[in-house]
Amino acid sequence: MTPTVFRVALRGEELLNNPRFNKGTAFTVAERKTFGLTGRLPSKVNTLEEQCERAYLQLQARDAPIRKNSFLQSLKSQNIVLYYTILRTHLRELIPIIYTPTEAEAIADYSHLFRRSEGLYLTFPHQDSMEEDFLEQTKGKNIDLIVCSDSEAILGIGDQGVGGIGISSAKSVIYSLIGGIDPSQTLSVVLDVGTDNESLLNDELYVGWPHKRVRGEEYDKFIDKFVQLVRKFFPHSLLHFEDFGVTNANRILKRYKDAHAVFNDDIQGTGAVTLSCAMAAVGVTKTKLSDQRYIVYGAGSAGLGITRQLRDAIVATDSVSEAEANKLFYLIDKHGLIKTNTPNIRDDLLDFVRPDEEWAGVKENGAGEISLLETIKKVKPTILIGCSTHAGGFTEEVVKAMAEGCERPIIFPLSNPSKLVEVEPKNANDWTKGKALLATGSPFPPAKMPNGKDYVIAECNNALIYPGLGFGAIISKSRNMTDTMIIAGARRLASLSPALKDPDDALLPDFADAPEVNFEVAVAVAEQAVEEGSAGVSWKKEEAREKVRRHLWRPTYGEYVYDKNGMA
């Protein structure tokens, strides 16, 4: 393959200190002469593969995951191509280092680990200069993807203030690593509206705005000012909302989804990958989504996102009305089954409230609440989804009740990290005598089937789908990320399920195949965008595959030519 030629205006130390263009010891002899690097580098010219081997050995010398995370952050700030190459080479091993669970630890200690900027910091008291700050950061750039967080609900560890820049940055990395989006065309943003985390407010080293979290109208105006800047200057970009709190996440998504291509991974990404899992599972049982009865254990952003995504897919694929599809779902929170007399029901849950009269004669606890077990006994669900962070919430009695109600119970304990999973998949497999179709939110080892065969546990990981959803929307210049585009991506992922060839195999592809899987998702999304008229391009649906392939970014070194008017 002919290397890409870049016209570069940087020389000497400036070039070596630019992570986008730095090649380190991979600069050729000719490039070293041209760019004034001969005396600045040792004489040996390395290949990218040799550099990757050396960097991996250095990484392995760090024993603790947080030290590995710090090393990779340092590498990222030195040499983008080498950073992504080592990640692609050791994908399964290093994703937990740069993302959950290790990134959560890095974010929690962000102010103490801080070394250099990771993106754009927009702070509430500085909002008068927001446009100026935004343009300063994006000047001369073609931004396709903007990932932002207000840091209220980070990776299961809650409010982390300005440290949320770490989750925006990590998500941007995964879009490039797995989705193929050029990292130079991404922007990571933290919307610093304060924090209610007392430990941060009392920490003299905290680098964010030391103020209680802004809420209400002032918060909404700040968010809107940012969104309008995105719409004004990058109208064809994808705006990704990450780890917003439950009171704001769905509200913000609903407000802007018809005005711009916006996406919330906690709601739509979790919903989409779970939908893919469910589609694969009903493919195994040779039924339809509308034939199922669903219990969702945990009614926060993730649980509601999953419920709505499944509901919308039922409406779109099985020609069922929304009102009828709503009746297939039973949501459970800390007050038990959500029914008419449940206290303090959020407005966004109202579509799924069960009428009290349905439950006459069903055993309640002292507070008048109906438990998960009693709900299962009455409903006889076919699908049980956990996103509660209630470790062990799917007890042996609960799982066995699921197995009594259907031939192949579909059980998805999705809570992260693994210590918070609702049931160990090995136990669910044993308690159902190998009947259960399983997927988890974290990686788990295979479970043993009664016939001695290993049952591979599918990892219901958002990264199997959201980078492809995003790339498909970007490549087609979509005005919106529509529900039908998401369903098209989920259907394509489900079609790649190993279980469709062997019903005792995993419901989703192996995470190591995530780049290839997301390529297919991106093609499906772009095809749907063009077909339905959401796209802002003139090419035909049949051209989507080639368009996606041509625009994939991969970490390789280009050939440099000096040009004082070139890139800097």
UniProtKB/TrEMBL annotation:
<dbReference type="GO" id="GO:0051287">
    <property type="term" value="F:NAD binding"/>
</dbReference>
<dbReference type="InterPro" id="IPR015884">
    <property type="entry name" value="Malic_enzyme_CS"/>
</dbReference>
<feature type="active site" description="Proton donor">
    <location>
        <position position="99"/>
    </location>
</feature>
<feature type="active site" description="Proton acceptor">
    <location>
        <position position="171"/>
    </location>
</feature>
<dbReference type="GO" id="GO:0005829">
    <property type="term" value="C:cytosol"/>
</dbReference>
<feature type="binding site">
    <location>
        <position position="461"/>
    </location>
    <ligand>
        <name>(S)-malate</name>
    </ligand>
</feature>
<protein>
    <recommendedName>
        <fullName>Malic enzyme</fullName>
    </recommendedName>
</protein>
<keyword id="KW-0479">Metal-binding</keyword>
<feature type="domain" description="Malic enzyme N-terminal">
    <location>
        <begin position="76"/>
        <end position="257"/>
    </location>
</feature>
<dbReference type="InterPro" id="IPR012302">
    <property type="entry name" value="Malic_NAD-bd"/>
</dbReference>
<keyword id="KW-0520">NAD</keyword>
<dbReference type="Pfam" id="PF00390">
    <property type="entry name" value="malic"/>
</dbReference>
<dbReference type="InterPro" id="IPR046346">
    <property type="entry name" value="Aminoacid_DH-like_N_sf"/>
</dbReference>
<feature type="binding site">
    <location>
        <position position="243"/>
    </location>
    <ligand>
        <name>a divalent metal cation</name>
    </ligand>
</feature>
<dbReference type="InterPro" id="IPR012301">
    <property type="entry name" value="Malic_N_dom"/>
</dbReference>
<feature type="binding site">
    <location>
        <position position="242"/>
    </location>
    <ligand>
        <name>a divalent metal cation</name>
    </ligand>
</feature>
<feature type="domain" description="Malic enzyme NAD-binding">
    <location>
        <begin position="267"/>
        <end position="530"/>
    </location>
</feature>
<dbReference type="GO" id="GO:0046872">
    <property type="term" value="F:metal ion binding"/>
</dbReference>
<dbReference type="GO" id="GO:0005739">
    <property type="term" value="C:mitochondrion"/>
</dbReference>
<keyword id="KW-0560">Oxidoreductase</keyword>
<dbReference type="GO" id="GO:0006108">
    <property type="term" value="P:malate metabolic process"/>
</dbReference>
<feature type="binding site">
    <location>
        <position position="416"/>
    </location>
    <ligand>
        <name>(S)-malate</name>
    </ligand>
</feature>
<comment type="similarity">
    <text>Belongs to the malic enzymes family.</text>
</comment>
<dbReference type="Pfam" id="PF03949">
    <property type="entry name" value="Malic_M"/>
</dbReference>
<dbReference type="GO" id="GO:0004471">
    <property type="term" value="F:malate dehydrogenase (decarboxylating) (NAD+) activity"/>
</dbReference>
<dbReference type="InterPro" id="IPR036291">
    <property type="entry name" value="NAD(P)-bd_dom_sf"/>
</dbReference>
<dbReference type="InterPro" id="IPR001891">
    <property type="entry name" value="Malic_OxRdtase"/>
</dbReference>
<feature type="binding site">
    <location>
        <position position="266"/>
    </location>
    <ligand>
        <name>a divalent metal cation</name>
    </ligand>
</feature>
<dbReference type="InterPro" id="IPR037062">
    <property type="entry name" value="Malic_N_dom_sf"/>
</dbReference>
